[in-house]
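Subject: mismatched residue count in predicted assembly?

I count 994 residues in my input, but I want to confirm that the predicted structure covers every chain. Input:
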Amino acid sequence: MDGSHWLSMRPVAEKLAQNGHKVVVLTAESSLSMNGSDLYTALTYSISYSKEDLVSRLEMFGSDHFTPSYFPGVTITMYNNMQEVFRIYGDVCKSLLSNAELIQNLKDEKFDALMTDPFSLCGTILAEYLDMPTVMFLRGMPCSLDFQAVRSPSPPSYIPRMLTTFTDHMSYSQRVINSLLALVESMACNLLYAPFAHMASEFLHRDVTVWDLFSRASIMLLRFDFVFEFPRPVMPNMIFIGGINCANKKPLNQVETKLVNSSGEHGFVVFSLGSMVSEIPMDKAMDIAEAFRSIPQTVIWRYTGKVPSNLGSNTHLVKWLPQNDLLAHPKARAFITHAGSHGIYEGICNAVPMVMLPLFGDQMDNAKRIESRGAGVTLNVLDMTPEDLINALDSVINKPSYKENIQRLSALHLDRPIHPLDLAVHWVEFVMRHKGAPHLRPAAHDLNWIQYHSLDVFAFLLAVLVTTFFISFKCCTYTCRRCCGRKSRPKSKSKKE
Amino acid sequence: MDGSHWLSMRPVAEKLAQNGHKVVVLTAESSLSMNGSDLYTALTYSISYSKEDLVSRLEMFGSDHFTPSYFPGVTITMYNNMQEVFRIYGDVCKSLLSNAELIQNLKDEKFDALMTDPFSLCGTILAEYLDMPTVMFLRGMPCSLDFQAVRSPSPPSYIPRMLTTFTDHMSYSQRVINSLLALVESMACNLLYAPFAHMASEFLHRDVTVWDLFSRASIMLLRFDFVFEFPRPVMPNMIFIGGINCANKKPLNQVETKLVNSSGEHGFVVFSLGSMVSEIPMDKAMDIAEAFRSIPQTVIWRYTGKVPSNLGSNTHLVKWLPQNDLLAHPKARAFITHAGSHGIYEGICNAVPMVMLPLFGDQMDNAKRIESRGAGVTLNVLDMTPEDLINALDSVINKPSYKENIQRLSALHLDRPIHPLDLAVHWVEFVMRHKGAPHLRPAAHDLNWIQYHSLDVFAFLLAVLVTTFFISFKCCTYTCRRCCGRKSRPKSKSKKE
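Triage response: the counts match. Full output below for your records.
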């Protein structure tokens, strides 16, 4: 997985290499963010897209979310975008699997384990082919596929489905919607991932389902914890490593240090919409710049587009910013974020209250989680006026409850017996040492749907109950007829005759 | 909780004290195993039983399990024994709660947290009264009360109920029995614990249910892991500290060292039936001694009864033995145990294959778990002949699979990022620092049974479905009648008229 998904896998790969393991990172030639490293070996394979291709598609994907549209247009756009993303994943995967020389090399290496982000199922197909124990590394899957794969129950009564922006306390009508989604979600995601199952079946020369591919995970390293996610049933092979991306802290450079130190008593605000969105439409940029002019804080804004003409002197545009390091500075007052899971955790780790402008994917749900904890304010980037942004910033900076809540979340999150990076590395090494973690695989994997839900048992018990009731009823009516009934006597007599 | 339950709580109390906390241990005056310590303060309260009383009851309880009896006798004995144990717990609890001076002292202390084994619910009642965050410390509860209390789903299709000795792979008929038990278990345990709910309601001057008492746990420290227990859904506030009792290792004393060193190439066997059973009927003791005479290993047997006349020269009776330290010795070849959870984990930690003679409680289930992993053999202590014991010992000592399996389990169990004792201490301190762990409490606690299972939602969806079907059906029949029916026309005409 390329892009932001790779950001928190990289430290794990590096730490494994530092621990003395040989680490090979499979990278598409035109990768966006998977650069080489001195610590691990990068094996590249050619794909049919150039880096410029990918960047322009990404920009298109980003800018789509700044075009106001409502139902059903917004859903169609989202679906088309998802389809496009999955088409690219599929093409990249085909390039990898058809690279016979590379595959043979990988086979010859006899690796101990494979770590993959299953958002694209390509790594899992490879693991199946090379018969390697698999560690999955992810924030979450659409349609609860991750929880389904490890057979973790997800009662729809308090576990909100993805993209609903519900919390764990739902109204009756929300529970109805959530239950309906729970009924159809696995079908929907099977459709989305069907091309991968097809590719796997072709590559492995046997029938493979999406379910088969997902459920081969020995360990799932999940990039969240229950400070952020709502508490819910989990399985013993799910390891929670939320905040793993806060590990790599570096001191600010001279320019950055000067900037934050000059921000005075009011401190500064960090603004980034993530690695996928560095430009936004000019009218929106001007609205935002307008808001920033009116606040007493210094603003550091990651933005590569044309400079808005109304940019205030307190607002500094940068092409890239060390987000986690800036947020760790004691003068950081607020974090304006698209609510990607990495950013959210950097906000939590450093106890900086957030103004969230979610754009796509899980970002709306992420924002809802922080908002429901009183640690941030969500705005709709399409509708918001400069005043909305000013008010939101004023609230999170000046109302004590936001700071108190994010500090509470931060304290809970940071109070753990082992750092998430060390935990992740431990479990990858565990899988390497023990060739998987079969002792954590529930017997539920060996049951079909009917058996798992005990429907065959309940059918039998129901049959026994009905039969018992029926026989008792018949016995009673027969006894009644024998004792009280007079009219039936002649009949039974005539029968005997 | 007294007896063996206290064995693994004590190191946690001591470590907390070593970390600088003030630790107060509430102890009944005639406690069996809760002696004082330099590290913590022991606060005692008087009870209506003398130590001799308790010991004689315990001995009676132990010897009951050596009287051959079959269904329904065995069930009646078990039930009577449970009732007796719970009656004593109840009496002890009454003594504590009615000790006004002690309770006031505890109130004045303003503790940060209370750690309790909820097998007796007395600690929980106290926590409720003193409004203290609670850490529960346990191996497991009858009737899955622990899992129910934290709202952890337990599908009966692969999660065997207590006392069934089923594994996670059940036959159809076993699944039927297991599902029936799942249906009635909560009722059964509510009955068993009802006196505590009654006592709590009286003491707290409001209605309190068993459920209320159990579900106040901020953290549950569970004395098992998934090397031993079958993998299953769990909740984020369940922390698994199996093997915590292996922490305290001491070197063997001179006598012990001489004994194990003199055992020669065949090594030695450790035999103990736990802290509750140190004497057994003479005929059984002679059978066992007879078996031991015929094996080449040295046997170290914890036994305080009359010496069997046929005792072999290779068999050494001791009043007490450092079980974990002996099992850690490289010459330990087998462990004959009653399959209590502490003993089982000492066998796993030290990779010693086991011959298991389960007697009561969860011991049959524990034995089944080890047997199903191929790391031990279970015998029925009542039926077994000397030959059975000889054969079982021969298998676990000389068949390589038993040693290999226990070594595999041991390696999996010991390969963890943090020692269970440190993990337990971390979570107690976490609860102290944050006044509980409310972020780990699932919203399921705020739903009633119907809401949790979405029965109200499904009733609505069913009603919608039926109504839609009914209206569609009516529309169809009406249309059909209008289009095709001739006979109905005069009727409708007459109606209009």
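Chain B touches chain A through 57 residues (CB under 8 Å). Marking this ticket as 'not a bug'.
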